[in-house]
Amino acid sequence: ALFVGVYEPTKQKLLKLFPENLSAVAHLTAGAIGGIAASLIRVPTEVVKQRMQTGQFTSASNAVHVIASKEGFKGLYAGYGSFLLRDLPFDAIQFCIYEQIRIGYKAAARRDLNDPENAIIGAFAGALTGAITTPLDVIKTRLMVQGSANQYKGIFDCVQTIIRVEGPSALLKGIQPRVLWIGIGGSIFFGVLESTKQLLAQRRPKPTQQSKHD
What is the pTM (predicted TM-score) of this model? Predict the structure, then answer.
């Protein structure tokens, strides 16, 4: 919700600033800005989720308490740099692909797109973006779950260690389920997003014609 709340108005402002042939830049930039805003909530949530999946904690509240007491507030933002490394490109690329395909399809069809078409385009954008950003997701996950162990010194050390110990293919671990899952998620997300935008547009009161004396 926070992402969309930032992305949509930012996109509209940037589209007015950029010429039509640079609309992709506007979509990329708006996606990145929306991602930065959403990361303030996403990162602590992701850290707690990843730690709980490793069996370190019994509940989310317990995870927050222990992480904050042992690692400080910054522990809740462990791997923040790698999170931005993955999610900023992900958000920017996914929304750019979706918006550009939608613009081209709409121009070719010369009509508004229906819900199934929006969902299909969303699925394609999500799946393609998921594949492209899989290595970034692997790096982000490794850095977030290491906790205070500090197995990796940073993003570049993490990449070098993974390649040296496990081979380059390790950076693509989980790509198939990731592409499938994000493709399905993209279909649902963009389908619902466009339906909601249309519904809100229909309910928005139409401007009344002002009288000559106004």
Answer: 0.74
